[in-house]
Amino acid sequence: FRNxxxxxxxxxxxxxxxxxxxxxxxxxxxxxxxxxxxxxxRSPRLQEPSLxxxxxxLETIRLHLCRAEKAERDGSWTIVCEERLHLGRYFxxxxxxxxxxxxxxxxxxxxxxxxxxxxxxxxxxxxxxxRQQGDLVEARDHAERALKQAEDGGWLDSxxxxxxxxxxxxxxxxxxxxGEAYLAAQEYDTATMLLQLGSKMAIxxxxxxSVEAESFFREGMGxxxxxxxxxxxxxFNTCVELFGYLQDVKGLVKSYxxxxxxxxxxxxxxxxxxxxxxxxxxxxxxxxxxRLADISLTLxxxxxxxxxPLKSCEYFLQSxxxxxxxxxxxxxxxxxxxxxxxxxxxxxxxxxxxxxxxSLTSVKRLVDWKETRGHQDFC
Amino acid sequence: xxxxxxxxxxxxxxxxxxLLLGVLRPAVHYVEGRTLLLHRTVSSLCSNADxxxxxxxxxxxxxxxxxxSIRSMKDIYDPAVRKxxxxxxxxxxxxxxxxxxxxxxxxxxxxxxxxxxxxxxTSIDLYGPNTIQxxxxxxxxxxxxxxxxxxxxVAELLSQAEWAVLKNPELGASVQQQLHRSLGHYHTSVGNxxxxxxxxxxxxxxxxxxxxxxxSATTKGYFLIADVFARQGRTAIVHSLYSEVAERxxxxxxxxxxxxxxHADSSVSFYEKAQRVEMEEMLRVILEFExxxxxxxxxxxxxIAHNLAMLWFINGDLHKAQDFGSTALQASLQIPxxxxxEPIQELLQQVExxxxxxxxxxx
Lengths: 379, 363
Fold this sequence. Notes:
The complex is a heterodimer of chains A (379) and B (363).
Chain A: H1 5-15, H2 19-38, H3 44-47, H4 55-74, H5 77-90, H6 97-108, H7 117-133, H8 136-153, H9 163-184, H10 188-205, H11 209-226, H12 229-246, H13 249-265, H14 269-286, H15 289-305, H16 309-326, H17 329-349, H18 352-356, H19 360-373
Helix pairs in contact in A: 1-2, 1-4, 2-4, 4-5, 5-6, 5-7, 6-7, 7-8, 7-9, 8-9, 9-10, 9-11, 10-11, 11-12, 11-13, 12-13, 13-14, 14-15, 15-16, 15-17, 16-17
Chain B: H1 10-23, H2 25-47, H3 55-72, H4 79-105, H5 109-127, H6 135-148, H7 151-167, H8 173-189, H9 193-211, H10 216-231, H11 235-262, H12 270-292, H13 298-315, H14 318-333, H15 341-356
C-alpha cells in the first residue's frame, strides 16, 4: 500500500497506542485542508504543500505529541507542557503561525500544569504573536497574566536572567503600541498613561537601551500631541543622550526634529532652526538622503514663514536634490511645488505694486518684464 | 418449477419459461435446476428470521421474481432487457447485503452465510471475477465465515479482496475501512497481534476519513484495537482507549436521553437497535475490564456505569438502569465533588419515579 505521509503517520501513532495524539493531529490536518479549500486562488497559503504532505513536520508533531501523551498518562504535567512548548517554537514559517498558536494555547491553557514555567513561557510567546498580528488587546491580556505567573514562579530563562524581565519588555512594547493607537484616536489622556507605562516597563525589562530610547521617544510624541512641550522636550533630550550613546544616527535625527517641532510650537524659531540645521548636517555626514530631504523641506517651510525666501529656496532645492537621490517621489514633488511657489512669489514681489495699481504704465511695465524676463536665474 | 412464486408476474415468467423451453431444450434442466437452487436459498434466508416486519415476505416475493426473471432472460440480446436485468441484479445484491449484515449483527452467522454467498455470486455475475466491486461481497462472506470459525476460508477471501484493492488504490475510504477491519478481526483470531494492530489502525484512519473523527465507526474501531492491546497486556493503553470510548458514548447517550425524554417512545429503527445492542456489549466488556484492575479508576467506572444506566433507561429496562445507576453513584461518590454525581442522582430519581408509577396494562 503506497501511503501518504498523513496516513503513514496516523497509522504509526495508532499502532503505538497514542490515540489522543492521533485525534489532535487528525483535527489539525482537517483544519488545514478546510483553510486551503476556503483560500482564494493563488493565495500564498496554496503555494505551500498541505500539512499532510510535509513529512518532516508531521514527524516532529508525532514525536512530541506522543511524548506529551505518555507524560499525560504518567501524570507528569511539566513534561506535557515542555513538549507542547517545543512544538509551538518549532513552527516559525509565516504560513504555520496558526500551528504555533494552537500549540502555545494547548500548553498555556491547561488546567493541570498551566502555571508551570513552560506554560508561562508559552503565554509570553502568545503575547508576542498576538502583538505581531496586531491584536493588542489579546497581547496585553496574555502578557499581564504571564508576567504575574513569572513573578510568582521566580524562574530564570536560558541565559540566567529572571523570566519576568521578558514579561516587562514585552508589556512595555505592547503598552507603547497601544498608546500610539490611542494617540492616533486623539484620546490623549489614555495615550499618555499607556505610553508612560510602556517606558516604565521598558526600563524595568532592563538592559536594552534602544528599547528604552524608543519608549521614551513614543512617550515624548504623546506629550507633544497633547501639548505638554516642556515635558516632551525633556524626554527628547534624554533620547538624544541614549541615541548618541548607541550611535543611532536615525534616532538622533528624529529626536532633533521632534525637539525642533516643540520649539516651533512654543515660538522659539531661532532654536528650532538651529536644531533642524544640526539634524540636516547629521543627515549630510551620514548620507541619510531621505531624512535630509524631509528635514530640508521643513527648514525651507520655516524660512519661508519668517520671510527669508532666499534661504528658503536654498533648502527647498537641497530637499529636491536629496529626494531625487533617495528616489522619494512624494518628497520630490513636494519640494518642487514649494520651490516653484516660493521663487515665483519672490520674483513677483518687486512687481507687486505694479499689479495693484491699475494704470497704463503699470501694465506696460509688466508686459516689458514678461518679454525681457526669459529664464532668469535669480540668486 | 417456480412453484413458490405467486404474485402478478408469476404467470408471465412461467409463460416465458415455457417459450424458452421450446427454444433451448438442452438448457432447460440447467435453468430449472438453478432456479430451484436459488429459490431454496431464498426460502432458507427467510425461514428462521423473526419476522416482525411484514415486508420480509414482500422481499421474498421480489427476490423470487427477480431470480426467475434474471435466470430465464439470461440469453436475451435486447439491450433494454439486459439493462433491466442489470438493475435487477444490482438490486438483488443490495438486498442480499442488507440481509447478510443484519444476520451478522444478530450473530446468526450460518444464515448470513447464505445471503453473503448469493451476494457474491450475483456480483461476479454482474461485474465479472476479480473486480473491485466484489470487495464488499468478499468482506461480507469473510465476516460470516469468521463467525463460524472457518479461518482458512476467511484468509482466502480476504487475500482476494486485498489483491483487488492493491490493484485499485483509488478505492474509496469506506471499503478500505471495512477491509482493514475484517483483516484486523482475522489476524486477532489467529494471534498475529502486531499485524492486527496495523490493520485496526488503518481501520480507524479510514473511518475518520469517511465518517469523521466523532463517528460511531471510529469509536468502535477504538474499542476493537483496545482488545488487541489487552491481549498484549498493555493495560495503560487499553485504559486510555476505554476512557476515550466511554467519553464519546457519554456525549452520545446524553443527547439520546434528552430526546427520549422529550419524545417518549418514538419508534426505534432496526439499525439504531442493533447499534445499541453493540454499544451495551462493548460497555459491559469495558466495565468488566476496569473493575478487574488493581488500581481502580473510580471516575471511569462511574462514567461507564452511568452510560449503561442511561442506555437501559432508554431501552425501557428500569431494573437494569437502577442497578447500573447505583454502581455509578457508588463510584462517583468516591471522588469529592465529582461532576457526574448530580446527573446520576437525577437519573436514579427518574427511574424510581417510573417504577412506582402504575404501569399501563399491568397488575
